[in-house]
Amino acid sequence: MTAFFALATSLLWGLADFGGGLLTRRSPALTVVVVSQTIAAVVLGAIVLATGGWSEAGPRLWFAVAAGLAGPVAMLSFYKALALGPMGVVSPLATLSVAVPVGVGLVLGERPALVQVAGIAVAVAGVVLAGGPRLGGAAVERRTIGLTLVAALGFGAVFALIAEASTTVTGLFLALFVQRVTNVVAGGAALWLSTRRGAPALPEGGFRWSSLPALAFVGLADVAANGTYSVAAQHGPVTVAAVLASLYPVVTALAARGFLRERLRAIQAAGAGLALVGTLLLATG
What we know:
By secondary structure, the protein is mainly alpha-helical. Helices cover 75% and strands 0% of the residues.
């Protein structure tokens, strides 16, 4: 069950990143984040009301609030790093986020089997290679590296925090709702400050209502990914769930290949293959 839900997380996050990447080519990244997360918050609010999730309110929701604060910081740092530096460096470095939940799992006493340790090593190497790291070229600015590491830390913190935010299904709906509301508030404040400094909030020509379904997909896929990861982490070792859930860059690369006809570099294809081998080792261990 852990492997199934963790792999579902990778699929959902990979598709959400692919959709978000396409949308940010036409609209400001902050606007994409705020609108997509607002749609997700509205849907989750309706689910919480329908399921009586408010009865699950408790101290664990502070984990959801923390995840909601860490998420926008990670996203904005990641987008800024992509704007300043080469994607072939930024993308693989961001996958270091897996170190946070894996480290938390080890501190809490988890000890994966030898086969799973091998699977973790192979899968992480595959994910890094799937990002297509550059093996040469000009040096990357320290600011770009710093922003990428901040993004990785933030993404990893979301992994770890959301796994602690609930213990029941209805509680999970409430935790995800609180996380999304916090995302919207934090992202909305950042968007307001950005516009005060002269940055545009809308693309040239105004908001395209035709993009609303795509924005809804990105927001809801991101929510679903958080939910499936939480279930995966609750039903098995966090070390295994986190590594399998971190395979989303492979999904994004394959989606770009399938929909945009982007050609995978040899190093990316090799990384995807290694990620698959690592997944099999983790699932069978």
